[in-house]
Amino acid sequence: MSTYRGTFEHDSFLGWLNLFKIRRLQVLYNVGERPPYPVIISKPTVGEVLKNLNKADFGLFATVTVLGFFASRRATLGLTTTEYMRQRGFSIAWNSFMMAGVLFACMNSNNRLTGFVDNGLQWRRKEQRLVKYDFTSEFEEGTIWKFFRLR
To answer: A Pfam family name for this chain (predicted)?
Structure first.
C-alpha cells in the first residue's frame, strides 16, 4: 500500500485501481493549468508508450482479460445455433475483451507519461496554475471584443 490511505503504489499489480479515485471534479484543464503530476514526455510515441508499460498496466490487462472470459462465456451460452458458431462467437468476444485490455493498458501508460496519472513524481511547487502574463486583456478592454470574452 502507498503512503496515502486507500491507494496502491503506481507500479504495483493493483496500481490501476487508482484510476477510480476522484482527484478533481474538473476533467478539462484551463489554459495555464498543468496536469496533476509532472510530465515525463509531452507527446509520447507508440514505442515510448510500450516501453513505459509496467505492472499496473499488466494488472489492468489481466483483469479485463479474466473478466472478459467470463462475460464472453456468459454471452455465448444463449446462442442456439451450432457448436461451431458458439465457439466462434466466444472467440470473437474474448479477443475483443483482450484488445480492450491492451487499449486500456496503453492509455494508462500514455496518461502516466503525460502526467495525468500518478507516475511516481511530484511537482516542486504545489500551486495548480502557471504564472503567466496576460498580454491581451489590456487590448481587449479598449475594443468591442470585451463583450465576447469567455473568461
So the answer is: NADH-u_ox-rdase
